[in-house]
Amino acid sequence: QVQLVESGGGLVQAGGSLRLSCAASGSIFGLGLMGWYRQVPGKQRELVASIGSGGHTGYADSVKGRFTISRDNAKNTVYLQMNSLKPEDTAVYFCKVIAALNAYWGQGTQVTVSS
């Protein structure tokens, strides 16, 4: 089993920045793809950014140029640096980790961007 603990969400004004962290613990052998998703009420959860074990990254078009995903393999942690935040970025953000071919989700952290 893998446990994920997220932190870093909160309330910020439009144009501001936040940094989300997601630390994995437990049976983390073979930690693979790591990613961030977000969800607003009434909508499906959407992929925001992902990073492979080798560092290859991918982003949703809506966040390209504003968000940066990174990982620290020594700390089993994935980060999401969010800059130039917009009200439409308001959502619950979840991290997802693939370990030994199983998918694990964090509990979610609220990000609210005020206009």
Features:
115 residues, mainly beta, 7-stranded mixed sheet, 4-stranded antiparallel sheet, globular
Put the structure in a nutshell:
With 115 residues, the protein is mainly beta.
Describe the protein in words.
This protein is mostly beta strands. It contains no helices and eleven strands. A hairpin with a 2-residue loop joins strand 9 (91-99) and strand 10.
Write the layout of secondary structure elements.
Layout (H helix, E strand, L loop, with lengths): L1 E6 L2 E4 L4 E9 L4 E9 L6 E6 L5 E3 L7 E6 L4 E6 L8 E9 L2 E4 L3 E6 L1
Parallel strand pairs: 2-11
Antiparallel strand pairs: 1-3, 3-8, 4-5, 4-9, 5-6, 7-8, 9-10, 9-11
The helix content is: under 10%
Rg value: 13 Å
Q: List the total number of helices.
A: 0
E-strand count: 11
Mean pLDDT across residues:
95
By oligomeric state, this entry counts as single chain
Structural class: mainly beta
Give helix and strand order, one letter per element, not per position: EEEEEEEEEEE
Fraction in beta strands: over 45%
Cα distance spanning the termini: 40 Å
Biggest sheet layout? 7 strands, mixed
| Overall form | globular
